[in-house]
C-alpha cells in the first residue's frame, strides 16, 4: 500500500525568495504528517505563472497544469493563506477558481476528479478573519467535491494591526524535506 500524499498550496503573496509565515505554519503541518508517515509537499503558488480563468489550461505560459498534476496525485489538499484585510489572499482565490475549472474532470476510474480527496486549510495573519477565510476555502473545496472532515483548519493570528508575525512570535519548525 502506498503512503498517503499531502499537498499544501501556499497562497502567500511572496515568492520563495522571501520568508513566509504561511510557509512556516505549513512546515509545522508537514512535521505532523511526517510523524504519521504521510508524504507532504509545499508548493508556493507565487512561484508559478498562473493565469486567471476557469479552464484546466489557459495556454500561453499558464503553469497551473504543473500544479494541477500534483493536486491529482495528492490524497490531501491543503490551501495555506495569509490574511489580508480579514480575507484569504487573492492567490488562494485564484487557486480555488482554477480547481473549480477542473471539477468536471474524472479520474481513471470514471469518478469525479476530487473523489475521496480530503481538503483542509492553514491560515496566518495579524488580524481577525481566520475563521472566515477558512470557512470560505473549505466551502469552495466541499462544493467541488473534496471531503471536509471536522477540524481540518489551523490558524495562527496575532494581534490586530502591526505586531509580531507567526515567525517573529517565536513559532518555529524543524527543517525537513517538505
Summarize the structure.
By secondary structure, the protein is an alpha/beta fold. Helices cover 29% and strands 18% of the residues. The protein contains 4 helices and 5 strands.
What would you say this structure looks like, in words?
The protein has helices at residues 21-35, 64-73, 90-101, 130-143; strands at residues 5-10, 39-44, 76-82, 118-125, 153-157. It is of the alpha/beta class and 178 residues long. It has a single domain, classed as Flavodoxin domain (Rossmann fold, 3-Layer(aba) Sandwich), CATH 3.40.50.360. The two termini are 21 Å apart. The mean pLDDT is 92.
CATH C-level class is Alpha Beta
CATH architect. name: 3-Layer(aba) Sandwich
CATH homology group: Flavodoxin domain
Fraction of residues in helices? 25-40%
Total discrete domains: 1
* Biggest sheet features: 5 strands, parallel
Q: Please tell me the overall pLDDT.
A: 92
Low-confidence stretches: none
State the distance separating the first and last CA atoms.
21 Å
Series of secondary-structure elements, N-terminal to C-terminal: EHEHEHEHE
Strand order of the largest sheet: 2-1-3-4-5
Number of beta strands: 5
**So how many helices?**
4
Structural class: alpha/beta
Radius of gyration equals: 16 Å
Judging from the principal axes of the Cα atoms, what is the shape?
globular
What portion of residues belong to β-strands? Answer: 15-25%
Which topology does CATH recognise?
Rossmann fold
InterPro entries: Flavoprotein-like_sf, FMN_Rdtase-like_dom
Protein name: Multimeric flavodoxin WrbA
Domain NADPH-dependent FMN reductase-like: 5-151
Amino acid at each position: 500500500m502506498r503512503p498517503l500524499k499531502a499537498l499544501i498550496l501556499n497562497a502567500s503573496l511572496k515568492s520563495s525568495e522571501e520568508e513566509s509565515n504561511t510557509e512556516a505554519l505549513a512546515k509545522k503541518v508537514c512535521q505532523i504528517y511526517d510523524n504519521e508517515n504521510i508524504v507532504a509537499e509545499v508548493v508556493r503558488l507565487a512561484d508559478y505563472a498562473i493565469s486567471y480563468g476557469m479552464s484546466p489550461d489557459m495556454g500561453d505560459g499558464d503553469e497551473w497544469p504543473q500544479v494541477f498534476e500534483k493536486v491529482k496525485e495528492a490524497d490531501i489538499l491543503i490551501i495555506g493563506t495569509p490574511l489580508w484585510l480579514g480575507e484569504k489572499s487573492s492567490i488562494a482565490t485564484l487557486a480555488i477558481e482554477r480547481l473549480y475549472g477542473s471539477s468536471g474532470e474524472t479520474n481513471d476510474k470514471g469518478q469525479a476528479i476530487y473523489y475521496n480527496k480530503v481538503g483542509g486549510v492553514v491560515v496566518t495573519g495579524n488580524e481577525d478573519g481566520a475563521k472566515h477565510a477558512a470557512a470560505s476555502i473549505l466551502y469552495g473545496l466541499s462544493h467541488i467535491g473534496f471531503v471536509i472532515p471536522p477540524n481540518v483548519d489551523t490558524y495562527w493570528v496575532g494581534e490586530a494591526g502591526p505586531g509580531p508575525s507567526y515567525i517573529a512570535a517565536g513559532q518555529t519548525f524543524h527543517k525537513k524535506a517538505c
